[in-house]
Design brief:
Length: about 230
């Protein structure tokens, strides 16, 4: 049974401030490529588990997908806690990746959890708005629920939520403290990856830039899973 993910019931949270989610830190091309490689592993691991796999129909209907790795009290691959990468579903293919950070609010882990891999599937235009508008908050006006799992939805219907969440914490599965966080582009990382200072997420997610070699494997996986079901 799907459940709403809220702060209630979580014993402890990882509070994220704008200062903690530093989107001005530098990273080398190698570090950024490693970040994308880790996102690929997160997606592959999730899809290899029948109990966690995102159904093909969900990916087919998705507007975009975001993949985060969140660590309690640590730095993630050269970026602050809450860094992630997003891909947009452009009907016949998936876009190159754009980097994002969680700028504020709370996105936390339960007691005893040290690491969480989070996949957020953005299911409509309203949810996709968080990729462009830093004033749109996760959990405020956007319904986020645990997503359905399995190779196919079968007889079940497509969830009506704005955002479907899939997450695994190292050692155990927990709920997400998901309230008021702002996702904003990491301009520094995007500029470094694409070697263009004034690049925008609209250009990246609109597939107006070349696909980085490091992202080819993940975008092909997204294509294979999502386009097994014909998109209307």
């Amino acid at each position: 049974m799907k459940k709403m993910l809220t702060i209630a019931g979580l014993a402890a949270g990882l509070m994220m401030s704008a200062a903690q989610a530093d989107d001005t830190a530098s990273a080398t091309d190698e570090q950024l490529e490693t970040f994308i490689a880790e996102a690929t592993k997160i997606f592959e691991k999730n899809q290899a588990n029948p109990k966690k796999r995102i159904p093909d129909e969900v990916l087919s209907e998705a507007d975009a997908i975001m993949i985060f790795r969140i660590t309690r009290g640590g730095i993630i691959l050269g970026a602050s806690e809450g860094a992630g990468v997003a891909f947009k579903n452009n009907i016949e293919s998936w876009s190159p990746p754009a980097f994002y950070t969680v700028a504020s609010g709370s996105l936390g882990l339960q007691i005893g959890a040290s690491q969480m891999d989070l996949i957020a599937v953005l299911m409509n235009h309203e949810a996709e708005g968080i990729l462009d508008d830093p004033e749109i908050q996760w959990g405020v006006g956007l319904e986020a629920i645990a997503g359905p799992t399995g190779a196919s939805l079968g007889a079940s219907t497509m969830p009506k939520a704005d955002i479907l969440l899939y997450e695994t914490t190292k050692g155990l599965d927990v709920g997400v403290a998901f309230s008021g966080g702002i996702v904003k582009p990491n301009q520094k990382f995007n500029a470094e990856l694409y070697d263009k200072e004034d690049i925008t997420t609209a250009w990246i997610l609109g597939s107006r830039v070349s696909m980085p070699a490091a992202a080819e494997s993940l975008t092909l996986l997204l294509r294979d899973y999502s386009y097994q079901q014909k998109k209307d």
